[in-house]
Design the sequence.
């Protein structure tokens, strides 16, 4: 059950009415609204937010690795509505190796952000046609922003010389 | 010898069957990563039909340095120097964004004088960044003298930055908690002198370009980018303002006391390279207006927040007060702790919306810092923008985006 405080927010109330059960949790801290979305319904929720609630801009997509906690990843979406002058953060909790639906069908601009998230965290986005590495070389092994990826000494370390 | 003969024979052979029903043959052209007009290391794979670009695929990552990973290994205080190196042509905007995000997490109040100083420096930074853009873009298109004029004024701003921080480019001057150092003696005179002469300099650039038929022919009607595509792809900054949308973080969600300043958001309706040039030219004048207001309205006051646990104490206090010495030792060795939570701070950089998403787990090092950089967001629109352009126009269209590859690759 969602907290009263969250349901009082128009974004959460409308989204909850249009896509029932999509919001699993919410928080309002430092003036920023965060909604946790059921990963299987992220596209549905985003489509509603874009077309009905006028969140026309996708500011960014990224992820946070909470290793060794489970579920391990949080995929974070930052949206902006120019008309309402509001910002909104969506989050999806995801286990390692689990895919999430791509939102490139909602915002074309999601493409590079999803590729970057894949490159850095190894999270796969189902339905993204060009999901391949974007910043690192094609033959790179591993995903550097994972917490278990070493900061120093990937394959070679001058400290051992 | 045989290989060369075979090669020549293959070149003289009749053209391969047409690739498309129209009968034309496509050619794939590799542009970059060392092409001078990319101002960095960007590779674009262009598919051409005659002289027309039908597909453009940017290939990025040549400047990736893992800055986001490095953030996680340094204290919050040490992170400031990394922000300088993301977008090296507008480092103060990056300093400011990081500072705002950390201060939001710590719920820290910054004294008004420091806020005004931040605004003034951010606007000088915008002028400097646009000067580099105008000079190099005009150079790309073939108007060489503008470059010398622009870099003359840029030098003045670099000297001001050096006077404030000791560094010309990697200043790290805006830090969580306020400013790095007290402003130097005589700064008002130096900044005032620059601001006094700058408007006439902008008129000079305008005169050089507005009466140049080559410049006009090469910019007007070139690089059209449908507004719906721009919104869909997340394009920001002068690009979208050149299409008539007054999207500006400074006006929409004012930070650092921007709400107290009188300025307008510069837009233009033509939505081409010329429009983007006009927007940036008007922003010279608006930034000058804001910086002048900041200079005149700035009171002398504390330059740092009253938070001894996170702001480095004055040198004098360290010599006389034991607490100051202890705090200094703790901040330098251990770093200050930032309360658990997450914050998103957005700033209007010269290139568009720059936003830092900062996550803290309550320790003295960031858990995660994500940089939403304007160049990355804008560059994604490169393909859709130049598809259909003539190959000669791609240089003008690409330059009008004003991306910095350090900002793209991080």
Sequence:
């Amino acid at each position: 059950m969602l907290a009263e405080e969250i349901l009082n927010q128009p974004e959460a109330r409308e989204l909850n009415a249009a896509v029932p059960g999509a919001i699993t949790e919410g928080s309002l801290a430092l003036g920023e609204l965060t909604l946790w979305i059921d990963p299987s319904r992220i596209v549905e929720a985003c489509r509603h937010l874009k077309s009905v609630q006028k969140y026309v801009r996708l500011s960014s997509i990224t992820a946070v690795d909470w290793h060794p906690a489970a579920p391990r990843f949080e995929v974070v979406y930052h949206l902006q509505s120019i008309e309402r002058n509001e910002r909104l953060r969506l989050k999806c909790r995801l286990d390692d190796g689990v895919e999430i639906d791509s939102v490139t069908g909602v915002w074309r601009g999601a493409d590079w952000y999803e590729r970057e998230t894949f490159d850095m965290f190894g999270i796969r986005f189902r339905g993204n046609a060009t999901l391949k590495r974007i910043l690192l070389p094609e033959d790179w092994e591993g995903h550097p922003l994972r917490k278990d990826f070493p900061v120093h000494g990937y394959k070679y370390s001058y400290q051992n010389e | 010898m045989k290989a060369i003969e075979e090669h020549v024979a293959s070149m003289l052979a009749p053209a391969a069957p047409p690739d498309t029903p129209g009968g034309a043959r496509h050619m794939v052209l590799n542009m970059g990563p060392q092409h001078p007009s990319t101002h960095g290391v960007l590779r674009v794979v262009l598919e051409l039909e005659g002289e027309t670009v039908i597909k453009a695929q940017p290939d990025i990552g040549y400047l990736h340095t893992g800055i986001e990973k490095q953030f996680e290994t340094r204290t919050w205080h040490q992170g400031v120097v990394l922000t300088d190196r993301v977008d090296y042509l507008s480092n103060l905007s990056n300093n400011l964004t990081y500072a705002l995000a950390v201060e939001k997490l710590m719920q820290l109040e910054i004294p008004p004088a420091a806020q005004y100083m931040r605004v003034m420096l951010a606007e000088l930074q915008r002028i400097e960044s646009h000067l580099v853009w105008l000079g190099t873009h005009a150079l790309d298109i073939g108007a060489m003298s503008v470059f010398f004029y622009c870099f003359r004024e840029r030098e003045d701003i670099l000297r001001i930055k050096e006077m404030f921080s000791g560094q010309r480019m990697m200043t790290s001057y805006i830090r969580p908690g306020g400013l790095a150092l007290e402003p130097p003696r005589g700064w008002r005179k130096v900044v005032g002198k620059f601001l006094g002469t700058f408007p006439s300099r902008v008129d000079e650039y305008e005169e050089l370009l507005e009466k140049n038929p080559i410049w006009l022919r090469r910019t007007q009607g070139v690089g059209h980018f449908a507004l719906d595509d721009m919104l869909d792809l997340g394009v920001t900054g002068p690009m979208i303002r050149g299409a008539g949308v007054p999207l500006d973080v400074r006006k929409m969600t004012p930070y650092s006391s921007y709400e107290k300043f009188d300025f307008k958001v510069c837009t233009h309706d033509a939505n081409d390279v010329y429009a983007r040039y006009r927007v940036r030219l008007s922003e010279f004048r608006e930034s000058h207006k804001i910086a002048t207001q900041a200079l005149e309205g700035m009171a002398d006051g504390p330059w740092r927040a009253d938070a001894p646990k996170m702001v480095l104490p004055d040198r004098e206090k360290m010599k006389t007060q034991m607490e100051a010495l202890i705090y200094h030792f703790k901040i330098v060795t251990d770093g200050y702790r930032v309360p658990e939570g997450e914050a998103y701070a957005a700033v209007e950089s010269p290139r568009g919306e720059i936003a830092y998403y900062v996550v803290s787990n309550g320790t003295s090092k960031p858990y995660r810092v994500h940089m939403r950089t304007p160049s990355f967001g804008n560059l994604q629109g490169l393909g859709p923008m130049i598809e259909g352009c003539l190959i000669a126009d791609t240089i003008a269209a690409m330059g009008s985006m004003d991306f910095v590859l350090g900002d793209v690759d991080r």
Notes: Chain A touches chain B through 34 residues (CB under 8 Å).
